[in-house]
Amino acid sequence: MPKNSNLGKALIRRQNKVVKSTSSIHTTDYGPNLQSIIDQNNLDEFMTMAALANKQFTAQKNVKLVSESRIVGTGAKIDPSILQQYRYLQFPKRPKWEQGTTPEQLEELEKKSFLEWRRSLAVTEESEINSVVTPFEKNIEVWRQLWRVIERSDVVCQIVDARNPLFFRSPDLESYVKDLGKKYVLVLNKADLVPENLRKNWSQYFVSLDIEHYFFSAACQQELIDKDMVGDNEFGNDYSSRALGYVYSIQEFLSLFEKETHTTLGFVGYPNVGKSSVINVLCKKKCVGVAAQPGKTKHLQTLIISPKITLCDCPGLVFPSVLSSRAEMVTCGVLPIDQLKDILSPVEIVCLRVSSKDLEERYGISLNGRVCASLLLQKISNHRGFYTGSGLPDEVKAGKMVLKDYVNGRILYVHKPPGTVESIEAMAEEIKESIDEQFFVEKNPGKLTVDESGTVTYQGTYKLTKQEKRELKFAARRGENPNEKLKEILKSHGVASI
Ligand SMILES: Nc1nc2c(ncn2[C@@H]2O[C@H](COP(=O)(O)OP(=O)(O)OP(=O)(O)O)[C@@H](O)[C@H]2O)c(=O)[nH]1
Ligand SMILES: [Mg+2]
């Protein structure tokens, strides 16, 4: 077949047409439709569940129902320890099958077990935790892709974004893979965005949990490929000692899995963590599609890269969870920013995390300390000339830009492992950022005046006691410098001196 032939595409199109004409209107996608379904309205969700249960419903008009649980349920205080217990919910597992199971029987089994999983999540949501499970993948076809990748892999590499590994990690996936007798490794991609000290901290954390993990940077390795410098390790760290936080090069990573027998590595994880990018650099050429938006890979792909190694790319999947909010998910890059309705909540998170100095530098604006999302977006809109048709600042356009910059690491925030002790300086910097500047005596030292009658007046953030005022007055009378005395007083209260 000649190169760039369209025959393959034409065959896929024809196949899609055939399936479309026979498929149901409420796309539960038993055909080749691998479109991820994360957000569904209640009716679609209901119809999907009905289709899975092979049930049909007819609509009854003019009936109004008020759900009591919705009224009672809202606003209830949830015990954080209970939520923590449900931090990682179960993901759907492929039911067991035997040699004699026909494809039709297996499909029925899969649908049944998927339906049971959806129902168990609903029960957890309503009666056990009384909290909302954040959006998760609802298309059984996409989960089928994950099951297939795990089945054909000897080693399952769960790729996570190294900036926030705990958001992306799934302990349930780890135990599932291990129960199947396969090897599980955690790959912390985008290591280029994480400073060395934090990589070390994260490594210590995962070592303490006995999790085999490797830092990797597809972006840096791609740069080396482009410069024809493959083999060099950008990070220049000592491979032989493999210190904590070590970032692996392509060859070092592959050699971890090169055994006597052939090994298939499956790359799974949330959308947008860089699964396809890692595969491309391991192949040293672009074999699979990569995009800055989540949901690029729709179908698993298998690539034989050497007689000993095969790689398998999987579509990204959003696992169910209760602790993360939708806004948090947006900042993690797993929900598409372009289709976002609420821009302010995720930008609010960015405002809380990124220092105002970094935001000022990135957008060329001036902020006096931390600002709320709306003010930040207004300033950016005014500076960039983003206006709506009615002449108001276009906060939505500015918000999407900020969120994309955050997800792509152009404005950076890296999460710390639980229990990390931060340096006093770093904490002081953060506190300074979050408190109004005038509270800082260094920046606003106050003013001490002594008039001719010897009366002392001090205007500053520290309130002098009567006794201290008297001491200052007498110091001035003695001809001493009252400012020196004031320094002593402020120092004794732990306040920086003027
Ligand atoms: N800074 C940085 N960016 C990376 C790295 N690896 C991938 N990316 C970026 O992350 C984005 C997503 O990359 P993909 O490889 O498409 O991610 P994926 O996990 O395959 O995503 P889906 O196919 O949607 O599941 C792209 O914009 C990449 O350029 C990395 O090591 N460092
Ligand atoms: Mg991909």
Overall description:
It is a single chain. By secondary structure, the protein is α/β, with parallel strands linked by helices. It folds into three domains: 34-56 and 79-313, 3-Layer(aba) Sandwich (Rossmann fold), CATH 3.40.50; 337-407, no CATH class; 447-492, no CATH class. The protein has 20 helices and nine strands. The protein has helices spanning 7-22, 42-52, 68-73, 80-85, 103-128, 140-152, 165-168, 171-179, 196-208, 218-226, 250-255, 275-283, 326-331, 344-353, 356-363, 373-384, 395-407, 424-434, 466-477, 482-492, and strands at 155-161, 183-189, 213-216, 247-248, 263-268, 301-304, 309-313, 447-450, 456-459. The strands form two sheets. It has a seven-stranded mixed β-sheet with strand order 4-3-2-1-5-7-6, sandwiched between helices. It has a two-stranded antiparallel sheet with strand order 8-9. The N and C termini lie far apart (81 Å). Guanosine-5'-triphosphate (GTP) binds at residues 189-190, 192-193, 217-219, 271-277, 290-292, 294-297, 315-316, 409. This is CP-type G domain-containing protein. GO terms for molecular function: GTP binding; GTPase activity.
